[in-house]
From TrEMBL:
Keywords tagged on the record: Oxidoreductase
Coiled coil: none
Gene3D superfamilies, sorted: Aldehyde Dehydrogenase, Chain A, domain 1, Aldehyde Dehydrogenase, Chain A, domain 2
The organism's taxonomic lineage, starting at the top: Bacteria, Pseudomonadati, Pseudomonadota, Gammaproteobacteria, Moraxellales
Protein name: 2,5-dioxovalerate dehydrogenase
PANTHER family in UniProt: ALDEHYDE DEHYDROGENASE-RELATED, SUCCINATE-SEMIALDEHYDE DEHYDROGENASE, MITOCHONDRIAL
Annotated family: Belongs to the aldehyde dehydrogenase family.
Organism: Acinetobacter boissieri
Source superkingdom: Bacteria
GO function terms (MF aspect): 2,5-dioxovalerate dehydrogenase (NADP+) activity
A Pfam family this chain is assigned to: Aldedh
Length: 525
């Protein structure tokens, strides 16, 4: 498929008039054709108006149609074949195997949401039958289900050009909920975005859905992105990226005449705790596994282990020594964009400049490519960490800090002092159980996912996953952006009081035609 550089507004392909956006191969800084001209306010208005016009039609279609639509998007993405992978490699610097895996994850995610749509349990139907004889007052018949919020603006992430971008988790969960989607493509991978957008546009046509169900816009965040969030037809926003970008969108959304929710996944350093027995048993193996997790994907994961916390001991000294040696042998890797590489280097310089942070080791530079991420490992003691919030900066790359504590109480103090996180990991043996139990109540307040004896990178897409957490890991601590529960971000409850049976939406009718799980008079049925 030839790339056109055009936006997709409903079924139309439209050339922009705004600022020129051009992908750059981060490995050699060469510009990639074509040039994408950004949209203007009229383009935003057209896409949002079409989305609003499509909303009632789309959300009230039989669930089977919605599910088939999601499955058709997956098929259309797969039909793009190698063209998609090759373009994504050029635009992101990510290796083929990673992107092929990510395509599998993206299509698997769409299919999982198709299954979710079909089972209908997300409707969360509750029925409280009328109690006409109740004294002192009778009760009316009350029934509740969830409905779609309205058109959703999605900001694709740079670090997952497929799984968190145009057809990624935000788009899949919004479409599953019955919400049309308008995507603001990430300016780092416009070609990948155009290809995936085309796959969705085709799926809309094949499934005979209203055209406004999906649009794709190009342009900068400050122009097209801001106009999109401000448009009255948009009822929610999904975002993955920097804290600064996410909070700018939250502010815009709150300043609207009608404020709307922004689900922004932003910044996390994902503490890893090495509890005493596990650390004493095999500090060398633990250090090697840690560096492997840290360096994966040039560290450009929101769940990268950016902090290690342990008790001061000979074993911790051995852990640091092995981690130093492992990192020193870890080759540099190409980062996603020049901007991300610059931000990484700036953050490394910031932490290096803190007089209390010791630079333990740096990685190897073996590549002549541009925008290289050279790993950095720092060490501080707990008192220093507690007295300097700069050390909690997300470095987004291969960088981590080892914090040594002198007691369990100090480990708890460090944990209390942490900002909200996506994950926390406990490496432990059965003898560490009491230590873990002391930490758990704090961790439950601080993070979205607590792991035992694993590494936080690698986020399974399933029913039980939580990829969220308190600020600044996200802007809304009550939700997840990965897994089927992500659908709840784009739904809201509606109660139907004293409705005649033939006017009730199907899921709440007495004979349960959709066969969904329901709560009837306080009992699951
Ligand atoms: P970003 O700068 O936050 O950009 C993400 C998206 O938001 C882009 O489409 C961008 O538009 C838009 N945007 C940014 N600021 C905006 C604003 N003020 N108003 C409206 N829209 C705005 O993230 P990035 O470019 O992907 O990476 C930059 C840094 O973000 C990284 O170095 C890293 O620290 C962090 N990051 C974190 C995660 C994570 O999962 N935690 C993931 C990716 C990145 P443009 O087209 O104008 O850029």
């Amino acid at each position: 498929m030839t790339l056109t550089g055009e936006m997709q507004i409903g079924q139309q392909c439209v050339a922009g008039t705004g600022e020129a956006i051009q992908a750059v191969n981060p490995a050699n800084n060469q510009r990639l054709e074509p040039i994408y001209l950004g949209g203007n306010k009229d383009h935003v208005h057209q896409a949002c108006t079409l989305a609003w016009q499509a909303f009632d039609d789309y959300r009230t279609r039989p669930f089977e149609q919605r599910a088939v639509f999601l499955e058709t998007i997956a098929l259309e993405i797969e039909a793009l074949g190698d063209v998609l992978i090759e373009r994504a490699m050029l635009e992101s610097g990510l290796p083929r195997a990673r992107l092929e895996g990510e395509r599998g994850r993206t299509c698997g995610q769409l299919r999982l949401f198709a299954k979710t749509v079909r089972d209908g349990n997300w409707l969360d139907v509750r029925i409280d039958h009328a109690l006409p004889e109740r004294v002192p007052l009778p009760r009316a018949d009350l029934r509740q289900q969830h409905i779609a919020l309205g058109p959703v603006a999605v900001f694709g992430a740079s670090n997952f050009p497929l799984a968190f971008s145009v057809a990624g988790g935000d788009t899949a969960s919004a479409l599953a909920a019955g919400c049309p989607v308008v995507v603001k493509a990430h300016s780092a991978h416009p070609g990948t975005s155009e290809l995936v957008g085309k796959a969705i546009q085709n799926a809309v046509k094949i499934c005979a859905l209203p055209e406004g169900v999906f649009s794709l816009l190009f342009g900068t965040g400050k122009t097209v992105g801001a106009s999109l969030v401000e448009h009255p037809a948009i009822k929610a926003v999904g975002f993955t990226g920097s804290r600064q970008g996410g909070m700018a969108l939250v502010k815009l959304a709150q300043q609207r005449k009608e404020p709307i929710p922004v689900y922004a996944e932003m910044s996390s350093i994902n503490p890893v705790y090495l509890l005493p027995n596990v650390l004493n048993t095999d500090p060398v193996k633990m250090a090697q596994a840690f560096v492997a997790s840290l360096a994966m994907g040039a560290g450009q994961f929101c769940t990268n282990p950016g902090l290690v916390i342990a008790l001061e001991s000979d074993a911790l000294t051995q852990f640091k020594e092995t981690a130093k040696q492992s990192l020193a042998k870890t080759p540099s890797q190409t980062m996603l964009t020049a901007g991300i590489c610059t931000a990484f280097e700036k953050n490394i310089a910031l932490v290096t400049a803190q007089s209390n942070a010791e630079l333990l080791a740096t990685g190897a530079t073996q590549s002549e490519n541009q925008n290289q991420c050279v790993g950095h490992l720092f060490a501080v003691n707990a008192d220093e960490f507690l007295s300097n919030d700069v050390l909690q900066t997300e470095m987004f790359g291969v960088a981590s800090i080892v914090v040594s504590c002198d007691s369990l109480e100090q480990v708890k103090q460090v944990t209390e002092n942490l900002e909200g996180q996506l994950t926390a990991t406990l490496h432990m043996q059965p003898q560490d159980r009491a230590f873990a139990q002391e930490l758990l109540p704090i961790l439950e307040r601080k993070v979205g996912r607590i792991l035992v004896n694993g590494w936080p990178t690698g986020v399974e897409v399933c029913d039980a996953m939580v990829h969220g957490g308190p600020y600044p890991s996200t802007s809304d601590t009550r939700t997840t952006s990965v897994g089927t529960e992500a659908i709840s971000r784009f739904l809201r409850p509606v109660c139907y009081q004293n409705f005649p049976e033939d006017l009730l939406p199907t899921a709440m009718q007495s004979d349960n035609p959709l066969g969904v799980l329901r709560m009837i008079d306080g009992k699951k049925a």
